Amino acid sequence: MTPELVCFGNFTIDDVVLPDGTERPGCTGGDALYATLAARAWEPECQLVAPVGHDLPPSVTVAMGRAGLSFRGMVPRDLPTLHNRVEYFSDGSRAWTLFADPATFDALSPLPSDIPADWRQAQAFLILAMTLDAQERLVADLRATTTALIALDPQEDYIAGNEARLRRLVSQVDIFLPSAEEVRRLLNTEDWEQAARDLAALGPQIVVVKLGEDGCLVHDRRNGLMQHLPARAVPHVADTTGAGDSFCGAFMAALLDDPTDPLRAARAGALAASITVQGYGADPLFACNPADLRAQFDAGH
Questions:
Q1: Is residue 153 helix, strand or coil?
Q2: Thinking of the domain 5-288, which architecture would CATH place it in?
C-alpha cells in the first residue's frame, strides 16, 4: 500500500551521556526511525527511507518488522551503521560526536533512487537531519516530481558557512521545522516570533520552532497564526535524544489528518516527544501501541 507520509533520514547507534555522568551505550536511534514510529499513531500508512548499515543489530530489524515498517525503503549499504556519542550538559546544551567521516555520513543518507516508485505518490514527505548535500538532492528531486507537501528538519552542525544554501533550501519547502539552536545558528537571534516570520517569508507555509522543554512556536503564514505551545509535563526524563524527530513525525502525520489545524498537529508532536524522552533511544516508541497513543491524544490527556 502506498504510504501517506514518507520520512527520510538515518539509522544510528547512540551512546548517551547524561549530565550526571550516567552513560547508556548502544541505544537504537536515528531520526527516520523516531519520526516514523511517532507518526504511525496518526498516520498508520507512514514509512521510512533510510539506508541500512551492515551491522544494524538483528533485534532492531525484528522490532521494526513487528511495528509494521516496510523494508522496501531500507536500502542496504556496505558500511557500518552510523555511531554517535551524545553528551548532555547541565545547562541544557549537548554535544554530538559522529564516529564517521562526512563521506560515510552522506553515503548512509537516502538518495532519490532509494525511494520505491509507488511511494512517490505519498501526500507528504518529511526530510530529516542528514547532510546538506543529501537534503538538497531529495528536495530538488521531490519538488520536480510531486506536488505533495515537503517538510524539512535541518541539521545544526552544517549551518555555519552554509547559511545561504540553507535559505535557498528553505525557500523550496512547504513546512520548516527547525530547533531553537538551528534558528540561532542560521539567523543569530532568539526572537522566535520574528525568526518564524522571516523564515516563512522565504517560502514555507508553516514554520515551527522547536524549543525543547519550553515547547514550540507555531507560525502559519496562510492565516497569520503565531502561537506558543508548552511542552507536555512528564514524570521522568531519561533521554531527550530523538524528541525533536518524534515531534516532527507526529506533527506531519497529524497535519495530514487535519491540514487546517497546525496547533493540533503541534500538540500531537508534543505528545510523541513526551513519550520518547521517558526512555532510552527508540525503545519507548517501540513499546508504545500507536492506537493507545492516538486514543490518549483524542481523549485530551
A1: coil
A2: 3-Layer(aba) Sandwich (3.40)
Q: Is 235 left (phi over 0), alpha (psi -120 to 50) or beta?
A: alpha
Question: Cα-flanking dihedrals φ and ψ of residue 293, to 5°?
Answer: -65, -45
Query: Residues 139, 172: contact at Cβ < 8 Å?
Result: yes
Whether 301 shows a pLDDT value over 70: the answer reads no
Give Cα 79 to chain centroid, integer Å.
23
Q: Which helix (H) or strand (E) holds 251?
A: helix 243-257
270 Cβ neighbours under 8 A, 6+ residues apart = 215, 216, 229, 230, 231, 232, 247
Using only C-alpha atoms, the chain has a radius of gyration, in whole angstroms, of 17
For the chain, report the end-to-end CA distance as a whole number of angstroms.
Answer: 32
Burial class of residue 24 (count of CB atoms within 10 Å of its CB; 0-12, 13-18, 19+): middle
12, 40 in Cβ contact below 8 A?
A: no
Residue recorded with cell 496518526:
42
Which has the higher per-residue pLDDT, 165 or 58?
Answer: 165
C-alpha cell at 289: 501501541
Reading the block at residue 86, the C-alpha cell is 551524545
Helix, strand or coil, per DSSP, at residue 278: coil
E strand or H helix at 209:
strand 206-210
Where are the chain's structural domains?
Answer: 5-288
pTM of the model: 0.95
**What integer best gives the mean pLDDT of the chain?**
94
**Which amino acid would we find at residue 110?**
P
Look up residue 249 and give its amino acid: G
